[in-house]
Amino acid sequence: MHDFEPHSLKEQIAAAAAAMVVEEGLEYGPAKRRALKQLGLPARTALPDNDLVEAAVREYIALFCADTQPAELAALRQLALLWMQRMAEFRPFLGGAVWRGTATRLSDIYIQLFCDDPTSAEIALIEHQVDYEARTVTGFTGESVEALSIRSLCKPLQETVGVHLMVYDHDDLRGALRPDARGLSPRGDLAAVAGLLAAAD
Description:
By secondary structure, the chain is an alpha+beta fold. The chain has helices at 6-24, 28-38, 50-64, 69-86, 96-100, 120-127, 173-176, 190-200, and strands at 93-95, 109-115, 133-138, 144-154, 159-169. The protein contains 8 helices and 5 strands; from the N terminus they run H-H-H-H-E-H-E-H-E-E-E-H-H. Helix 1 (6-24) crosses helix 2, helix 1 packs across helix 3 and helix 4 (69-86) packs antiparallel against helix 8 (190-200). The longest helix is centred in the N-terminal third of the chain and has 19 residues, at 6-24.
């Protein structure tokens, strides 16, 4: 086996993970771990960070999905906007690949809600007779948050898409709006998502 520079090895792992993210809809974490196995590398090998994987995902999309991905992304953003409008009273913000522009038809939608009462979003879904599954996940604050997961039909794609409503405390909203390491907003509100759709038209 060749001795790779650590930098190029991380790029190799990122490229292998990116293919799985785009082609199979895997999340970054599982994709990185599977890429290690695929490349025959030890489990202790240093993994690329998410920024490097995202750069590889953008590269993969540009090379292999440039003709299909923009329409798929627009359809997912449209569906996200619909759910954000339905949940508008809970200050919804869109995050993840659909917000960042790297989503394909296999991507799920992640919407963060900021509620005064953590049970209010769940009550709203029950009142609107929406089937959902509640589970606990690690949120952007590093603490456990409730996720309300829904299957929603995306008509333009003829796909059923996972829509995950992550329920945060209203006080977490301030931290949610801080730019990331590259100075970009990691999530966007209703107006920002509507603006992305308008700009793409």
